[in-house]
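seq:
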Amino acid sequence: MVSLLLLAGLVVAVFVGFNIGGSNTGVAFGPAVGSGAVGKLGAGVLMAGFALLGGWTVGRRVVTTLGSNLVEGDPFTLGASIGVLFFIGFALFLSNVFGVPASTSMTAVGAIAGLGLATGRLNTGLLLEIVGWWLVAPVVGFWVSALVGRYLYEDLAASLALKGSEGPTFVLDRAGALPRPALGEGTTRREATGTVVVVGIGCYMAFSAGASNVANAVAPLVGSGQLSMNAGILLAGGAIGLGALTIARRTLETMGNDLTQLPLAAAIVVAVVSATLVTFLSAIGVPASFVVIATMSIVGLGWGRATRATGTTSSLPTDPAASPAEIGAPVGAGDAPGAVGAPGPGGAAEVEAAADLYRPGTTARIVLLQNLVPGLATLAAYGLFSVVPL
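struct:
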């Protein structure tokens, strides 16, 4: 019976990791695939490798937090581990059904907290610390992205305007004794640099995803002693890689998630800000929600662009023959942003583009559902573990 339960636990853990790989690959490498910088197979291979690297290095602290520290004592029986993993997998299912990227990290914490409440072993201090970081990190992501959107976005977008040349970006030059990489025919240095940057950021996001999400798949089994830390990380990393190489192809093809629907420059800003915050939190052992931080980063970037688009000069031209372009000149260094007057740089087109990133109604719905699913997982786990002594 125990061996069958362990097999069931391993299957559920692989299912969770498989879905994590499928959903996170589109987020990490969607911009790179969409811009033609890397193919779907290459994205899957890179996702598998860097997610495993993130889990193997930084992710250990998160596994320890969820598997040993959040609930005191030794509450993770094999049955309890399977129950917790079931709620995490169910959250992924709800995420797909409603089209909202639910946070597996928040759901994992919620399910484990429900177990701790039911058994009276919840580490309340650690839970409050985790929740505190959950409140602070999205705010930081919002304001950093808002500043980028307000002051740096247009220059960044211009520098990342990749114009793909015909043929491969890089080729192997076999003229010498040893083959060496070289630029493809017609490829400019700017195009090559942009390609490397986009792929590199995808790898960074894959590393961040592995660091924060490996624990969601195997922490209960590691905490119960059924798996060692190394075996658990390898199992989760392998499952994430399997998802990246199979079902992730659909998300990469349709680009159907919050990040990859953005323009390339916006996706990169959101990726860097979110991945940096998630990696930092994972390094200190805090399970981080990439989707919540990314959502607030998207909102901050759109809000920053919108404020720039509506910013104006403090004084209008006195020449009645002045052109609309002169009236809408950029705000000077000493001018107050947001002054009433003519539209700022980009005019109505930029306002409309910024509005695509900042939709308060849609944002509120997404944030509500992202927090509702972990709350439901907490209540469901508490009810289950209160009634059934797993």
